[in-house]
Amino acid sequence: MQLPLSASLPTDADVIIVGAGPAGMSASIALAQAGRKVIVLDMQALPGGQIFRGLEANLAAGCETLELMNALGPTYAAGEAVIRAFRETPGIDFRPRHTIWEVRRDGTIGWLQGNRAGYLRADHVVLANGAMERPVPFPGWTLPGVMTAGAAQTLLKAGRMKPDGRVVLAGTGPLILLLAEQLRRLGVRPVLLARTDHLRDQLAALPRLRFAALGPVAKGLGWLARLRLARIPVRSGVTGIEALGQELVEGVRVWQGDRVRHVACDLLIVHDGIVPSIDLAQGAGLRIGWNDALQAWQPATTEDGSAVLEDGASLTGGPCRILISGDARCIGGADAAIAHGRHVAAVLLDAKGSGPQTLAKVRQSLVPRLFLEAAFPPGLSADLPTGSTTVCRCEDIPATALQELLRAGATDINHVRGLTRCGMGPCQGRNCAITLARMIAAESGAKPVPFRARPPVRPLPLQALAALAGVDPRLAEVVSLEDKPQVAVAVRSTDV
Amino acid sequence: MFVSVAHFGHMCTIHFNGSPITARQGETVAACLLRAGVTAFRRTPVSGTPRMPYCMIGHCFDCLVEIDGQGSRQACLVHVEDGMSIWPQDGAAAIPGEH
């Protein structure tokens, strides 16, 4: 299928990059240095992504943020080099505070800033939109006072504020250990760090430990030792949690097998690892696969980051001009994202000899991940939610309502969405898709399949839509509306 | 629930529920409201239960508030501006001129 006039459409840049985190910044620096015209779009006001969130402003604030910078540590401060290069390289057109509501395979991007929206187009698009925390549906997770470790870190980095009162941390993974240590440095003593992982997970992961992972592992052991010295209670092998309270979290129940402990708290911080943000890739009609080791979806890409179109009809035609880089492609952290961003740029520049070199660095940068993935398996989300536990936060849909449909024979995730509105709220399934898909997969034995996504993948105010800028009438052409899934199974339940 | 770590630089004033709150230039509406102790940013249209920011990075949409008359704004993505008027979003967003 070919969009007939596509080739003659004017472009706004050689490359458009979505996301000014480590991957997006690194790719844009290398491309601009080689003379390419690059537009970089990011939701935030400052470059850095979530890992280096607010770093530029915190450094500029000098002694005002000294205590904060010390607590956040050297890994955070290390982002200064790449941010400075990003700011100083001529030829990078950085457009902050832009959310992206559409990505098309032909290199077209729909953007929104405030109440202004429009389209941009380039020969290539690099999606470097990063990761999100794995959604963890447990009883009470919608209560005010329950937030993710990433949220608490964002409040530290960009909000310059720390939790006050009784804090409980629950979950697994390097990020929650790092956050506990950062809080300790700021004088916050969590009343409990409830870890879902066991020492046996780390022991079982040892065969995957390579030299490149020794640094991160030593760092993690150091954090744990300091938490122990500070007498912060740490429990491992936690099998489940429940947040308690009416209008606000008041406490948490923590299970270790049959043993239940009740801990009063004012803030419950949860974390179950991070997973690629697939929203833009999915909305662009790219192929998304299920990664068993990660227990999450990941876009199908080559090592060079080239995305693959999903089979079947699509809204738009033409060859795929989209690449995916950084954590949005494969979880690896900041160093891996920087390595891959550079590699994507080398591939796009077709620089002779540079490709194999940058690729070797990409491979090396992903080595520590092999160990970390096995050492900190998903915990809070390991068991699927049941009963009245909310699955879809936007539409307040409990697990039981979905289970009823599945028992009645529903097997298609898009069908369940249509019948229940699960995934149709403002977040568009970002927080429930993985849970619902796993529930369906548990019944069918097949791999979890995500929702079919259509643009706009983020809310777009009507007034912005009515005054779209940069519209070429040919871009409004939709080649096919045949992307609606066929529902093969008739649901027998009549009360939905 | 949260207290400042750093000193404030440039300040401005925003209003929540009609009451003034001191904000730091450059911070998000969500960060500012959390420091001020706001816990119910919105109530869901379905059950009316209160919600507070959960992810702070634009994914969860639980921080939706009404800003300067426009509903369903993500407080974690919007930056404070002097004189901004913010209201919690109770249920579905109101559409201007609807009533």
How would you describe what is shown here?
The complex is a heterodimer of chains A (496) and B (99). Chain A has helices at 22-33, 55-60, 66-72, 74-77, 80-88, 149-157, 174-185, 199-205, 214-229, 279-283, 333-349, 354-365, 367-375, 399-407, 413-420, 433-444, 462-466, and strands spanning 13-18, 38-41, 92-95, 99-103, 108-113, 116-127, 131-133, 146-148, 161-163, 167-172, 192-195, 234-235, 240-244, 251-256, 259-264, 267-272, 274-276, 288-291, 296-299, 322-324, 390-392, 397-398. With 496 residues, chain A is an alpha/beta fold. With 99 residues, chain B is mostly beta strands. Helices cover 7% and strands 34% of the residues of chain B. Chain B has one helix spanning 29-35, and strands spanning 2-4, 11-16, 19-24, 42-43, 50-51, 64-67, 70-74, 85-90. The model of chain B has no long low-confidence stretch (mean pLDDT 93). At the A-B interface, helix 3, strand 8, helix 6 and strand 9 of A face strand 1, helix 1 and strand 5 of B.
List keywords for this structure.
heterodimer, A: 496 residues, alpha/beta, seven-stranded mixed sheet, five-stranded parallel sheet, 17 helices, 22 strands, disordered N terminus, disordered C terminus, B: 99 residues, mainly beta, 1 helix, 8 strands, 34% strand
What can be said about this structure in brief?
With 496 residues, chain A is α/β, with parallel strands linked by helices.
Tell how many strands the DSSP assignment of chain A holds. Answer: 22
Average pLDDT, all residues of chain A: 92
Tell me what portion of residues of chain A adopts beta-strand conformation: 15-25%
Overall 3D shape of chain B: globular
Q: What is the SS-derived class of chain B?
A: mainly beta
User: What is the tally of helical segments of chain A?
Assistant: 17
Oligomer: heterodimer
Any low-confidence stretches of chain B, pLDDT <50, length ≥5? none
Task: Report how far the terminal alpha carbons of chain A are from each other.
Answer: 38 Å
Largest interface: A-B, 53 and 41 residues
**Low-pLDDT windows of residues of chain A:** 1-5, 485-496
Number of strands of chain B: 8
Order of helices and strands of chain B: EEEHEEEEE
